[in-house]
Specification:
It contains 15 helices and 11 strands. The chain is α+β, with helices and mostly antiparallel strands. Helix 3 runs parallel beside helix 8 and helix 12 packs antiparallel against helix 14. The mean pLDDT is 97.
């Protein structure tokens, strides 16, 4: 069963009851992230996510983590381009205590000055770690090559200089503007009583003062740049990007099937040709990211620097043949089944369901319709996927990013 309610202050609640399980995942989703930040703010959404775990009037940071551990609950959070999510998973008999703790850190964190100073060091190390993870660095660079230095091109962690300069006042000001009741969704999925979930949400979030929330406008422009970073590392990493469809686009489902055939698994074109037949890469794949206004199709490979040019030519050949010939009927049917099974498997996971239903409510203000999703996928034809290939693989607008011990950037041929 599913229950939806909007509190008087604008906070939205959605509950997906999954009977027969022994646990529940609860989340608080906020419609903010890197894409909404200014140059001076870049990285602030992520830094605030860290700071919410650093103590309230009632609990120190250690006491919060200790309290979750004491009831056997798991707690975490993540920041994306256009959403931040705080979540906890607990056994059903501990759901009330877990939600109380999750609400405590979300609603009543105090951002102590000493914790801000300490956490700056932690986030700076996270930035260093990202810099030392060439795959992540390459994909971050690809987003910037695609969208430039604004909105979806921004780095979620932000530049080190910004992190060093964030002030307590700045954190509270951004949080007051973006963490508004109308921009918050509380989502439960698992074995929890519907009335209890509603009661807990009303108790914890009903006291939030409603504000005149105003969305920050985004101007999204495709850049199509080519970025390169020389690093003395053992592998070369490169990625090609293409403008893709928005999450509400008519070709969203067809694009997902297309991606499965192209680089979504061990039977995909990229995996079979570049890894299995030519032995040029251990890791080669593709995936699509979808936002409100646009999307990005990413093709990635990690290779021996001496074979980077050969690998790039092989990936380019796969892409050109894919664009020219399309998919076979066998590939289409297999890809469609993979997309369907992925959605079905997600139905059995409380964390996936919490996020799926929460995002649908946050982004669209509606209940996720599993049956509609299955019908859309089942109704797809091979011709639909052919149209998605044509729309997604626009070689004239491609962007590239490469990282490694290379003399020149890797190019799409």
């Amino acid at each position: 069963m599913i229950r939806v309610k909007t509190l008087a202050n604008g906070v939205r609640l959605i509950v997906k009851q999954m009977e027969g399980l022994l646990s529940v995942t609860m989340g608080v989703l906020v419609g903010t992230g890197a894409a909404y930040e200014t140059d001076e703010e870049e990285g602030i959404s992520h830094f605030i996510e860290h700071m919410l775990f650093k103590g309230t009037d009632r609990f120190t940071a250690f006491q919060l983590s200790d309290a979750f551990d004491a009831i056997g609950a798991q707690v975490n959070a993540f920041t994306g381009k256009d959403m931040t999510c705080y979540y906890a998973k607990a056994t059903s008999d501990r759901a009330e205590e877990a939600f109380g703790l999750l609400s405590e850190l979300f609603l009543r964190s105090t951002f102590p000055e000493e914790e801000i100073a300490r956490e700056k060091g932690v986030v700076l190390e996270e930035i260093n770690m990202d810099e030392d993870s060439p795959e992540d660095l390459c994909l971050d660079m690809l987003a910037r090559a695609a969208f430039g230095r604004e909105n979806y091109g921004r780095n979620i962690l932000g530049p080190a200089e910004n992190v060093k300069n964030f002030t307590r006042e700045q954190l509270f000001a951004y949080k007051a503007e973006r963490y508004c009741p109308q921009n918050i969704v509380v989502s439960f999925a698992g074995n929890i009583d519907l009335s209890l979930a509603e009661e807990l949400t009303e108790r914890e979030f009903g006291g939030l003062v409603p504000t005149a929330f105003a969305e920050r406008p985004k101007t999204v422009l495709w850049q199509g740049d080519k970025l390169f970073r020389n690093k003395p590392i053992e592998q070369a990493h490169f990625a090609f990007g293409f403008p893709s469809v928005p999450r509400d686009g008519a070709m969203f489902a067809a694009t997902q099937v297309m991606n499965m055939v192209l680089g979504g698994g061990m039977s995909s074109r990229l995996f079979k040709r570049v890894r299995e037949e030519l032995g040029l890469a251990y890791s080669v794949y593709s995936y699509s990211s979808h936002y409100a206004e646009t999307g990005l199709l990413t093709v990635y490979a990690g290779v021996n620097p001496q074979k980077a040019e050969q690998a790039a030519e092989a990936v380019s050949e796969v892409l050109h043949v894919f664009r020219k010939e399309g998919v076979t009927q066998e590939e289409f049917l297999r890809g469609r089944e993979q997309v369907k099974s992925g959605s079905i498997f997600a139905q059995e996971n409380t964390s996936s369901q919490m996020l799926l239903y929460g995002k649908q409510m946050l982004y669209r203000g509606e209940i996720y319709d599993f049956e509609k999703r299955m019908a859309e996928i089942s109704a797809l034809t091979r011709e639909d996927v052919a149209a998605a290939i044509e729309q997604n693989l626009d070689f004239e607008r491609a962007c590239t990013a490469s990282v490694g011990n290379l003399k020149t950037a890797v190019s799409l041929s």
